[in-house]
Design a protein that fits this description.
Layout (H helix, E strand, L loop, with lengths): L3 E4 L6 E4 L5 E5 L2 H7 L3 E7 L3 E4 L3 E6 L5 E6 L6 E6 L2 E8 L13 E3 L15 E2 L9
Parallel strand pairs: 3-10, 10-11
Antiparallel strand pairs: 1-2, 2-5, 3-4, 4-9, 6-7, 7-8, 8-9
Protein name: Aldehyde-activating protein
Family: Belongs to the Gfa family.
Keywords: Lyase, Metal-binding, Zinc
């Protein structure tokens, strides 16, 4: 197991992952595109494997999946850090770009590929899901 650390843009929020990601995926849902202006590389981790310090702000909305998704971000710099879903309370999504070493992970799948813009560069070597995949076991 590799411990991973990260932080927001301004450093006011830092986090630690003490478990391996259950999945590492590039998400092309419209919400991630709004947050990242592109696809977003996300880690799916057990909620109890993530700890953080600092204050988070939250924004909740109903996603295209029908789930209530709460996105957590730094109130100072606005960096989006984590997300949690009403349908999957035992998991957290961690934005890979906030890792201190984002090269320590490798995406294995494109999800919500049906929402990707025509110019998106989807690696054909990665598994592809048109919408939301089932959670890993």
């Amino acid at each position: 197991m590799t411990e991973r650390t990260g932080h927001c843009l301004c450093g006011a929020v830092s986090f630690k992952l003490v478990t391996e990601p259950l999945a590492t995926r590039i998400c092309w849902c419209r919400d991630c595109q709004h947050l990242a202006a592109n696809g977003s590389v996300n880690l799916l981790v057990p909620a109890d494997g993530l700890s953080f310090s600092g204050v988070l702000s939250e924004y909740t909305k109903i996603a295209d999946s029908g789930d209530e998704v709460t996105r957590q971000f730094c109130p100072k710099c606005g960096a989006h850090l984590f997300a949690k879903s009403s349908n999957r309370p035992d998991f957290r999504v961690v934005r890979a770009g906030n890792l201190d070493d984002p090269s320590s992970i490798q995406p294995s799948m494109n999800i919500w590929a049906a929402s990707a813009p025509g110019w998106a560069c989807l690696d054909p070597a990665l598994e592809r899901e048109e919408r939301q995949p089932m959670p890993p076991k």
